[in-house]
């Protein structure tokens, strides 16, 4: 699905390289063990710069969302813009796909699984329900 494409920076390049390889990557602090996202060179919990990239398991739960009925062109269908929490702990803004964008299909706490959408040169991590809705 076409849509806005990201502009990688040195801090985020490993994230986009991971996505292109079908991996959802987050950073982990080796001093305190915190996983975090978005990419930063210092741990947001303890301030250490001893941080490494990890491949996340890709499972998440739905924390909050809005149904955007006016997405950026050329996307015309309503889009679910969601805040999800990875099982490793970090929260990220993303899209939920593969489900009709209706509140009945999007209970908070819904179990999600990462998938990737190709937009131009980039693979964008998005999430889809891990179990089919009733
Ligand atoms: Zn830390």
Describe it.
It is a single chain. The protein is mainly β. It has a single domain, classed as OB fold (Dihydrolipoamide Acetyltransferase, E2P) (Beta Barrel), CATH 2.40.50. The protein is built from one helix and eight strands. A five-stranded antiparallel β-sheet has the order 6-5-4-7-8, covered by helices on one side. Strands 2-1-3 form a three-stranded antiparallel β-sheet. β5 (79-86) and β6 form a beta hairpin. The two termini are 26 Å apart. The mean pLDDT is 92. The site of zinc ion has 8 residues, from loops.
Main attributes of the structure:
about 130 residues; mainly beta; five-stranded antiparallel sheet; 8 strands; globular; binds zinc ion
Task: Describe the protein's topology.
Elements: H1 13-20, E1 25-29, E2 35-36, E3 51-55, E4 59-68, E5 79-86, E6 91-96, E7 111-119, E8 122-129
Antiparallel strand pairs: 1-2, 1-3, 4-5, 4-7, 5-6, 7-8
The chain binds zinc ion.
Zinc ion binds at residues 29, 31-32, 34, 43, 45-46, 48.
